[in-house]
Predict the structure.
Amino acid sequence: MKQELRAVLSARLFTDRKCFGPGVAELLRRVDEHHSLRAAAQSMEMAYSKAWTITKNAEAGLGVKLLSSSTGGKGGGGAVLTDDARRFLSAYERYCERLRAYSDKLLAEEFAFYREEA
């Protein structure tokens, strides 16, 4: 019996280097949820130093600041997404959604023979 055929796509954006992809997007979503890069990293079971490096590399590649951070103190520190980060994340999510939709259509067209031979 034939199994359902599906494509699994993942998009990574490059300038002169890789600067935005599923990992950066997830990290930004978690920062938005937890209001902290450290808490976001912990929720992904990632070292804070790795999360910091990922963020800085993405910022350097894109040429925009993604996080606005405040240092600890009485109320504690934290991080929030910049407007640029929100725009990139939103555009990336829309792009991936459209890419998956097109991929599903193309897969159905190009591999129609697979379903027909079942």
